[in-house]
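Researcher: Go.
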Amino acid sequence: MYPCLDFAQCSCEADKIILAYQIFYQDFIQSQCFLNKILIYPKTRHKLRVENLQIEEIFWHIISRKNRNSRHFDEERAKRIQWIRHIINDYNKPHIKMFYFYESDGRIRLYLWLYQHDFVIILEKITTKNDTAFIVTSFYIDNDKKRQSFNKKYTDYVNQVDLKLRSCEWF
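Model: Structure:
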């Protein structure tokens, strides 16, 4: 489908992070990314330090996985970072299942699920700007329980099970 990053030439985790960051920087900071006419804002104000690198918090969230109280580099997520822009660009293609989901905190988020390859991107509209959204997260689905959960969210949306999602589409 979409190419994965090849970390074969990387000698350590920091090299993998740098390589993944180059893609993130190119796809979301150096150039703008749009979902139809909605600008996908990379939320660059929030930075943190990882492996002596100053990086955006959302970038770290995308390429890492939570384990107890901290996040750790996740190669399966990181090697798919260049999928994000492709999926956003291909949102209306048959290989992407697109659906809205009403989260427990009351937010309505848009899911772009590359279901045949177990990868999902979650976006949220910025409420103060009609034409802007941000990436909440993206990740590789690595277990059946999570896959079943996404399938249920998708079928519930398509079948209009949740009344709160009627007319919720923001693009």
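Model: The CA atoms of residues 152 and 158 lie 10 Å apart.
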